[in-house]
Design goal:
Helix content: 40-55%
Number of helices: 8
Strand content: 5-15%
Number of domains: 3
Shape: elongated
Strand order of the largest sheet: 1-2-3-5-4
Distance between the termini: 156 Å
Radius of gyration: 41 Å
């Protein structure tokens, strides 16, 4: 039992039991899906093969639906947020040492001593859990720490963030500044449009003035207009 506990602790991801299971699967995959590796680390090869089968089925469904298959790499907060999106109905808030209450029903629940969150070093304020197991207490199974902002974002029908007075004042100031900036931008756009219209009007007036000056009088010529009348010659005088 001590060897089993020591081997299990090697796979712990302190923020999440779900990520701990994902880490076990990833390590099994890196070791060629070998059964002897599972036996050395006190893991159930049958359960891991079942997980591999389910993953293959999900990948086939994604390929049929033309959903791209991507990896988040080592950014496992993406996985925690996805788990929060699926289990926000099982969200619980910290109440005491190892004790939580369901955010919706107020039902008390406790962290199981085997949970990876016991090795986190501190107790997270909010968690989501997979299920509850009743023994001497209601223990949460497969627990993941989440941010309260995720709950408000992914479950707005159940959760919302309460802002402090200073936060509300700051938010109103930002809204006023944004409104003033939009008004200034609109005024600048109107002034630019009026200036362009005035410039177009001046250009049109200049074109018409040049056109009026270039109109010629019928039957007149520049040489005739410049010629002076002469006195007829007197003959015989």
């Amino acid at each position: 039992m001590e060897e089993s506990d020591a081997a299990r602790e090697k796979f712990f991801v302190p923020e999440s039991d779900h990520l701990t299971l994902l880490n076990v699967y990833s390590q099994w995959k890196n070791n060629g899906y070998r059964t002897d590796w599972c036996e050395r680390h006190f893991l159930q090869a049958k359960g891991l093969r079942k997980a591999k089968e389910v993953r293959g089925q999900l990948a086939d469904i994604m390929a049929q639906q033309r959903v791209p298959l991507r990896t988040c790499g080592q950014e496992w907060d993406v996985v925690r947020k996805a788990i929060c999106a699926a289990y926000f109905g099982n969200a619980a808030k910290f109440k005491g040492v190892g004790e939580y209450v369901n955010c919706r029903t107020g039902m008390p629940a406790f962290l199981h001593p085997s949970s990876a969150l016991y090795g986190l070093g501190y107790t997270p304020d909010y968690v989501v859990y997979h299920e509850l197991t009743l023994t001497s207490k209601e223990y949460m199974q497969c627990v993941t720490a989440v941010d309260p902002e995720w709950l408000a974002e992914l479950g707005p029908m159940f959760f919302s963030l309460k802002e402090s007075h200073s936060a509300r004042v700051q938010q109103r100031r930002k809204e006023r500044e944004a409104t003033a900036a939009m008004a200034a931008e609109a005024a600048a756009a109107d002034a630019k449009r009026d200036e362009a219209a005035a410039a177009a009007a001046r250009a049109e007036e200049a074109r018409r003035s040049a056109q009026r000056q270039s109109i010629a009088t019928p039957g007149a010529s520049a040489s005739a207009a410049q010629r002076r009348p002469t006195t007829p010659r007197r003959i015989g005088l």
